[in-house]
């Protein structure tokens, strides 16, 4: 199950999606989504994360200027305990799926 936001915006994976997968498995789910007007590939789904992170390189490729980011005062803490200060925060539209089974957040 991939929840994109809101109570009715959930994508469920069926048995057909497991074709070729040896069960049980603990592999990460990696998807391709349309973000703004661009297709982003190799998006890792982490259901335990409390934040969604894009690196500056992704913002550069999406042509999002830094002045569109909202200021963020709280640093993030990495896996090794290092503190990272985000450049900012932004809400982006995301389209998942193909018509007619498609959702936009």
TrEMBL record:
It comes from the Eukaryota. This is RVP_2 domain-containing protein.
């Amino acid at each position: 199950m991939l929840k994109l936001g809101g109570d009715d915006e959930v994508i469920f994976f069926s048995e057909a999606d497991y074709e070729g997968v040896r069960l049980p498995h603990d592999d990460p789910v990696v998807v391709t989504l349309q973000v703004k007007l661009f297709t982003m590939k190799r998006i890792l789904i982490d259901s335990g994360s409390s934040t969604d992170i894009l690196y500056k390189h992704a913002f550069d490729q999406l042509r999002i200027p830094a002045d569109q980011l909202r200021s963020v005062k709280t640093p993030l803490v990495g896996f090794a305990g290092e503190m990272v200060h985000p450049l900012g925060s932004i809400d982006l539209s995301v389209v998942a799926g193909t018509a007619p089974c498609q959702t936009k957040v």
